[in-house]
């Protein structure tokens, strides 16, 4: 069953609807909004809620029609988005009634691939993140302890106990520095400087771990996707596993819409293309169409001459491109494939008269 048209509209408008709903909730907390404006905002909230009722119905219909993977979370979010504001409307009176619509914060997260990616990165890097968090905790305690010892007699109201000094330690270690608690003694100021520098180091470590985690996860996803695409090109089925891994890393996927120009005659060529799906049209004097499993753009790569013909997408086409430097790698790891490409280039060169 295909998606209902309404669902298509609503999917793209999901984040906008949530933003409108949440801004309305925020506006309703302003005390000096007049009665009429308040009513208009409340009607707006009801409209957003009604849209979410439709989305819930649609999700349930889709769920019945086919087993949608991960639909459990989506259904839970859709049910909560409808149920919580309804319960608040029926049972809660007063200014807090609309606050329950803040549950719509969950809506943009629904089905978001980014949050799935974040979840995987956090799970994978959990050990390192916990390690750095432990260092943060240790430094925090040591800083509060030292500040307590150094400043307790000078400022007993602010540093008179370790829990009191802890607030100073948190704001200093996070380099927020509200300035409500400032060490007065020389030793206290030296300590503050050290704590600030440790804070910068700890946050840099957190940022580094997360950045590396994201980079590796995105690379892994690219690898898996490329692997599936490479499996669709018969030429690569001859490769051994080592060479296959190298080529999967080297190839870059690209989708060109029907009619799009992929390379132009006369241009310098630094990459060749393998067709995973779709067809391309080669504008030789007798135009040629190439389909999935074929390759093109190899002539410029091998001869170093400009592109011999313009190649455009006859249908939407999914390609894998290979740069000249990676072609050298392919030549050494898999000479038989490089030989097929070279032979084809020579044959095509013979068949394509120079103009
Ligand atoms: P290149 O010259 O790099 O760029 C244009 C490409 O079109 C060329 O490489 C070949 O891959 C392809 N091509 C050129 N002539 C023919 C032909 N006669 N048959 C099939 N493909 C061709």
Automatic annotation (TrEMBL):
Record-linked SMART domains: cNMP
InterPro entries reported in the protein's UniProt record: CNG_cation_channel, cNMP-bd_CS, cNMP-bd_dom, cNMP-bd_dom_sf, Ion_trans_dom, Nucleotide_channel_N, RmlC-like_jellyroll
Residues spanning the membrane: 39-61, 73-91, 129-150, 162-179, 191-215
Annotated ranges, domain Cyclic nucleotide-binding: 235-348
Keywords: cAMP, cAMP-binding, Cell membrane, Ion channel, Ion transport, Ligand-gated ion channel, Membrane, Nucleotide-binding, Potassium, Potassium channel, Potassium transport, Transmembrane, Transmembrane helix, Transport
Keyword Kinase recorded: no
Subcellular location: Cell membrane
GO cellular component: plasma membrane
Membrane topology (UniProt): Multi-pass membrane protein
GO function terms (MF aspect): cAMP binding; intracellularly cyclic nucleotide-activated monoatomic cation channel activity; potassium channel activity; protein-containing complex binding
PROSITE patterns noted in UniProt: CNMP_BINDING_1, CNMP_BINDING_2, CNMP_BINDING_3
Described purpose of this protein according to its UniProt entry: Cyclic nucleotide-regulated potassium channel activated by cAMP.
Subunit structure: Homotetramer.
Similarity comment: Belongs to the potassium channel family.
Protein name (database record): Voltage-gated potassium channel
């Amino acid at each position: 069953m295909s998606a209902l048209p309404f669902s298509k509209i609503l999917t793209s408008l999901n984040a906008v609807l949530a933003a409108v709903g949440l801004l309305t909730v925020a506006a309703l907390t302003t005390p000096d909004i007049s009665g009429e404006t308040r009513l208009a905002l409340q009607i707006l909230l009801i409209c957003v809620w009604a849209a979410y009722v439709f989305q819930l119905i649609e999700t349930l219909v889709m769920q019945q029609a086919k087993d949608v993977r991960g639909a459990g979370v989506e259904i839970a979010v859709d049910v909560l988005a409808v149920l919580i504001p309804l319960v608040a409307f029926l049972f809660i009176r007063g200014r807090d009634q609309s606050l329950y619509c803040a549950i719509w914060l969950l809506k943009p997260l629904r089905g978001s691939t980014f949050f799935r990616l974040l979840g995987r990165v956090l799970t994978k890097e959990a050990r390192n993140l916990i390690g750095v968090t432990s260092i943060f905790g240790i430094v925090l305690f040591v800083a509060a302890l030292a500040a307590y010892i150094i400043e307790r007699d000078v400022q007993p109201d602010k540093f008179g106990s370790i829990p009191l000094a802890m607030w100073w330690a948190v704001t200093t270690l996070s380099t927020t520095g509200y300035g409500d608690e400032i060490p007065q003694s020389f030793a206290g100021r030296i300590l503050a400087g050290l704590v600030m520098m440790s804070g910068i180091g700890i946050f840099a470590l957190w940022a580094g771990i997360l950045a590396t985690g994201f980079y590796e996860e995105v690379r892994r996803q690219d690898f898996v996707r490329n692997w599936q695409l490479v499996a669709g090109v018969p030429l690569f089925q001859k490769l051994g596993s080592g060479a296959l891994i190298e080529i999967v890393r080297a190839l870059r996927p690209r989708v060109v819409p029907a009619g799009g120009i992929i390379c132009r005659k006369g241009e310098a060529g630094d990459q060749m293309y393998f067709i995973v799906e779709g067809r391309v049209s080669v504008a030789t004097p007798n135009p040629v169409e190439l389909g999935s499993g074929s390759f093109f753009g190899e002539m410029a790569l091998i001869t170093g001459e400009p592109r011999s013909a313009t190649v455009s997408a006859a249908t939407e086409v999914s390609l894998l491109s290979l740069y000249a430097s990676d072609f050298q790698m392919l030549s050494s790891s898999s000479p038989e494939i490089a030989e097929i490409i070279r032979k084809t280039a020579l044959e095509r060169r013979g068949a394509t008269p120079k103009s």
